[in-house]
Amino acid sequence: MGKKVVILGGGVIGLFSAYYLSKAGHSITVLDKQNLGTSSTGNAGMIVPSHVTPLAAPGMISKGVRWMFNSTSPFYVKPRLNSDLLSWGWKFYRAANQKHVDNSTKALRDISLLSKKLYQELSQASNDFEYEEKGLLMLYRSEKVGQEEREAAQMAIDLGLEVEILDQSGLNQLNYGARTNALGAVLYKSDAHLQPNKLMAFLRSELDRMKVEFVEISNIQAVETKVGRVTKVVSEKQSFEGDEFVIAAGAWSKELAKLADESIALLPGKGYSFTIPKMENAPLIPTILCEGKVAVTAFQDEIRFGGTMEITHVRDQKINMNRVTGIVNTINSFYPEISMTIPKEEEIWMGYRPCSPTGLPYIGRSSKYSNLIYATGHGMMGLSLGPATGELVNSLVSISMKYQDLCSRFVHNK
Ligand SMILES: Cc1cc2nc3c(=O)[nH]c(=O)nc-3n(C[C@H](O)[C@H](O)[C@H](O)COP(=O)(O)OP(=O)(O)OC[C@H]3O[C@@H](n4cnc5c(N)ncnc54)[C@H](O)[C@@H]3O)c2cc1C
Question: Which atom of ligand 1 is nearest to the CA of 380?
Answer without folding.
Answer: 15
